[in-house]
Amino acid sequence: MFKAVLDLIFPPYCLACNANLEVGESLICTNCRFDLPLTNSHLTSDAKLEQKFYGKVKVESVNAYLKFVKGGKVQRLLHHLKYKGEQEVGEMLGRMYATVLKEVNMHERIDLIVPVPLHKKKLSMRGYNQADCIAKGMSEVWGVPWTANVLQKGRPTESQTKQADRYQRYKNINDVFYINLPEQVRNKRIALVDDIVTTGSTLESCANELLLEGASEIHIMTIATAT
């Protein structure tokens, strides 16, 4: 009853386009769900995505769900996820992406879902890790476990997009991540999950640490790609 009254006073709106949501819609309106810019990288290999990691780290696959366009719907959704406390957005996008990937049996190739971690200072400030939300949503659809405990970030870093060249990005991210519970990643096929891939340096560093501790395969999966 209280929620119904509250919705009358403050009607829920679509986080992608700001239109009022209809009955039965949640977070994203039906029009936006069908209008999101898909990459379809799970159907056809994406050379731009793969080149971010080629010759740098051995990954079995690189996939992104949506195309990131400045000022577009995907940017607005990720903004709500990262800065507005809308953790449900991450879980929903994780479920949506996992459903798409399940159509090509990707879940059968994964033993463990590992989100890219935040440094404890940023985690304390934000209160949650957006990649955890995505991993949780994917886990619900796949029935594959996820954990935020095995991969840790040892020191804070600046945004990779602020680094002038690859060497600066390498220095910024080198020796940042470590494996807290190596026995949980050994001989595991791991889905390494994040909200967006930009330069790829952060995911590269995480993948390297997982492989060094005995992970058998790394599959990179992000909600968006800024290509």
Give the structure's gist in a few sentences:
The chain has helices at residues 2-9, 30-35, 47-51, 73-83, 87-102, 120-126, 130-142, 166-173, 201-212; strands at 61-67, 112-115, 151-153, 177-179, 189-197, 217-225.
Descriptive overview:
The chain is globular. Helix 4 (about 75-85) packs across helix 5 (about 85-100) and helix 5 (about 85-100) packs parallel to helix 7 (about 130-140). Strand 5, helix 9 (about 200-210) and strand 6 (about 215-225) form a beta-alpha-beta unit. It has helices spanning about 1-10, 30-35, 45-50, 75-85, 85-100, 120-125, 130-140, 165-175, 200-210; strands at about 60-65, 110-115, 150-155, 175-180, 190-195, 215-225. About 40% of the residues lie in helices and about 15% in strands. The longest helix is centred in the middle third of the chain and has 16 residues, at about 85-100. The chain is of the alpha/beta class and about 230 residues long. The termini are far apart. It has a four-stranded parallel beta sheet, with helices on both faces. Mean pLDDT is about 90; it is low at about 1-10.
